[in-house]
Write a structure and sequence with these properties.
By secondary structure, this protein is an alpha+beta fold. The chain has 14 helices and 16 strands. The longest helix is centred in the N-terminal third of the chain and has 23 residues. The two termini are 36 Å apart. Bound molecules: 4-amino-1,4-dioxobutan-2-aminium adenosine-5'-monophosphate and magnesium ion (MG).
Amino acid sequence: METISRTKIVDVLQSEAFGTTVNVKGWVRTRRGSKQVNFIALNDGSTINNVQIVVDVDKFGEEYLKPITTGACINVNGLLVQSQGQGQNAEIQATEIEIYGTADPATYPLQKKGHSVEFLREIAHLRPRTNAFSAVFRIRHHMAIAIHKFFHERGFFYFHTPIITGSDCEGAGQMFQVTTLNPNNPARTEDGDIDYAQDFFGKETSLTVSGQLEGELAAMALGAIYTFGPTFRAENSNTPRHLAEFWMIEPEVAFNEITENMQLAEDFIKYCLQWALDNCMDDIQFLNGARKHLYKNEDMDDLVERLRFVLDNEFIRLTYTAGIEILEKAVADGHKFEFPVYWGADLASEHERYLVENHFKCPVILTDYPKEIKSFYMKQNDDGKTVRAMDVLFPKIGEIIGGSQREEDFDKLQRRADEMGVPVKDIWWYLDTRRFGTAPHSGFGLGFERLLLFVTGMANIRDVIPFPRTPNNAEF
Ligand code: 4AD
Ligand code: MG
């Protein structure tokens, strides 16, 4: 076979170099046709669109073409010609075909369209080869790029925080332990407790639930930073919005007050959504239709409208207390919630979505939550009851961002940590920021997969991360 340098299908489809010989390589989506001529739809992942390979059956022989079935990988040289068919610019008349790898139709699981998302999760090693999941993962890439661009353009520094940690940032006790002690026979102290002094790090360690505490250290030096990395939570919540391993973006900005933090969050999300519209339209439009089959739900909103709607509207800002009043009124008017509504209650997803979808019909930033339901590090308000927290609530998703202004006063912070049972000995270094040159500062965390749920229109968080980690599920 003649060696010609490969062209990606995304470029072939836009090329007008008709009459030249090109090389493409990819996986067969379908092969159909007659005894004389076959049409292979070939995809190499560079775009949702396939290139059509036109094959003269006599030239290659029926026997030779037989193994070119759905899922097989082939290497094709051919003449680029203007497509006769509608919608596509260019197609390829094959001159040479090499078969790299076959995919036996008797065993290759991706034979037909219309597999359920549940089935596809069981074959997560192959699902990137479906149109829908390749679209999701291309969008995932583009969103990561948008995030780095947004912060870079604004002078934020990308700061790497550790994955293995000795402190529980959120204080919620949902950490996965990291240890090299023998689980069957761990070293023990004289009292019979596990002797972590003999563990790998000489102390008890876990996978981080958040990079925030270290992010704050950096903001107190570099001014404005963001983290973007994996975080881990051993919360046993089997919901369409929770993962045990998810990616979080956490900006932290010195001198920002809560109002500036809110504006940053709104600008940030809008930048990402605009980026999706500008760079991922083919994939978004594909998913707009595909997700209805994937989730067997014809009654889904229009994705492009969904994104434009958020871009065109200011996020509503209101306090937790005002939010509770709206929810209490809803209950009084006969609306039924599963979980009770009262001042002091942690909001469930149903409450958040009521505010966003039923009441305001718009993204909402809720602030000033009761201190009992928020983390120790949040700035305490003068009322003694609330803290300067902010949650950004989104239609379909509920909470997409959680953040706050931070308590910059050493004594108040230490007292609150004590009250909430956060071991001060583990976070002496964090408290040091308040001892030396403390300053007002704020930040937040965006759940990357929650953003992707919104952008892709997928209905389950397991379907926007390549290899989801959830209770009883760590295959692949
Ligand atoms: O509200 P959270 O717990 O806030 C923090 O971790 C802060 N340290 C952030 C900060 O201020 N720097 O989590 C932030 C976001 C949530 O709003 C949600 O989008 C996402 O992380 N998130 C999850 N996403 C998927 N699966 C889970 N189990 C998640 N838990 C939180
Ligand atoms: Mg939160």
